[in-house]
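Q: I'm writing a short methods note and want an example of a predicted protein-small molecule complex. Could you take the sequence and the SMILES for S-adenosylmethionine and return the bound structure as tokens? Please keep the output block clean; save any remarks for afterwards.
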Amino acid sequence: MSEDLPTGVERRSFDGESRLATRGEPVYGEPTDEGWRLWDAGRSKLGAMVELGMDAGLAGGDTVLYLGAASGTTVSHVADFAAPTYAVEFAPRPVRDLVGVAEDRRNLFPLLKDARKPETYAHVVESDVDVVVQDVATRGQARVAVENARFLADDGRLVAAIKARSEDVTREPAAVFEDALAALEPTYEVVATERLEPYHEDHLGVVARPR
Amino acid sequence: MTDDTDRDPGGSGAGAAPNGWFEGDAAGGADRIREGRADAPADWPALAVESGFADDESDYYARLREATIGAAREAAAERERADDQQLVHAVRAMDDLDQRANELAERVAEWAGSRYPDAATGVDYARELAGRDPDSTVDERLVSLAQRVAGLADEADELRAFVERETPEVAPNLAAMAGPVLAARLISLAGGLDALAKKPAGTVQVLGAEDSLFAHLRGHAPSPKHGVIFTHEYVRGTRPGKRGSAARALAGKLTIAARVDRYSGERKPELDAELDERIAQIRGGEAE
Ligand SMILES: C[S@@+](CC[C@H](N)C(=O)[O-])C[C@H]1O[C@@H](n2cnc3c(N)ncnc32)[C@H](O)[C@@H]1O
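A: Understood, no commentary inside the block.
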């Protein structure tokens, strides 16, 4: 099977199954194998996108801006294979854990900031990042992506997980996704979309490049 | 004044260049991470090396790491402290609403008693009246008043739900041990999580004993000397001769929970288990 995983992401065998893994300090009690940490697609939207074969534009050694880092589950894996990784999260409690994750890594920079207000971290996050990963699960997800386009390199990628229920619990997910994609359209050219089932229900994975 | 132009350590001319977190006044790097702004990002690593702030790129990232970790830790702690104050307002407002709703429900009951043979008392009765169709101008006033009571009680319920949701975020261990509402009351009575964490167990044991809130709770709590923690099942449900010991044990563990919540925030289920065991010991055999 030919598969373009970023350098630093490998398939390893866990309990006899071939699973994604990255190499680094364990963070949340995940299974490890000779220093490789299981990256569970069921616990990570980005992991699911990689598992589903979406091209997230990650090569390994990338510069990454991660929006909605929470306590650092996914971003810890990203920092394992990427270069500078800026992690934005606006809820204070998970940031405590995120700080702990950053303390074990040289290239992870935690920022307690609101992703809707990029002007509050544009003095810290460098320009021309390769990939903006977004998993904010809050109303206005397309707007967050649009606001943060300013950080992307011309050939960079937005890799976003859109959660339907965060926008409107009463509407059909498909309709919510359609609106979100339309809102991205002026700023981004969408290159791939994929529903994240069975790993995450009613989530749409989106890869896009800035116009 | 020309002092401002002295700020640029590189001397390459202030003003035109965009401001990264590493430039600016004498405040520490962590403060500038927290307070600074820029409309657009720039190649900060290169600019920092150019300006002499960092020796090279890896030195820059090492400094950035230190500053962001410090800033995130401080800002998170500050924000969490602010969250406990929101909880204090919410739980006080909830108690105010409950009290007013009960007072007005009494007024409604008294008024209704003069008009209907089936009149009852309490907030539930006011809610029932609130749904009636008034057929006289007097009933109009009475039903409208009952609707106010129902509205106040609804708002109190909403606030209770908010407190139940938020307290475990602010104080996970205290909320698990005391229940979210009692935990929020303790935080409120102390004036904040920080203040609660600094109190000795003996003080926590009697918090609220002298408070006016207690008058309202007295119905359920006949022995005010124990403070609000008397409403906890572990005190109330222990036989009278052992209640003092139960209250002491509970207050001791709640004090520890508040300190863990304030200083580490990590959830430690073993604390609850230790309390469960201690209470079982105190009640010793009476459960058989
Ligand atoms: C689904 S969780 C992210 C999980 C994480 N990406 C992972 O896989 O480990 C969504 C996170 O986004 C955060 N969030 C929501 N809105 C945000 C905003 N405007 N700015 C920053 N973070 C936000 C939430 O606090 C929450 O922690």
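A: Remarks, as requested: The interface with chain A takes residues 18-21, 32-33, 36-45, 61-62, 64-65, 68-69, 71-73, 75-77, 79-80, 83, 169, 265 of chain B (CB under 8 Å). The CA atoms of residues 52 and 152 of chain B lie 62 Å apart.
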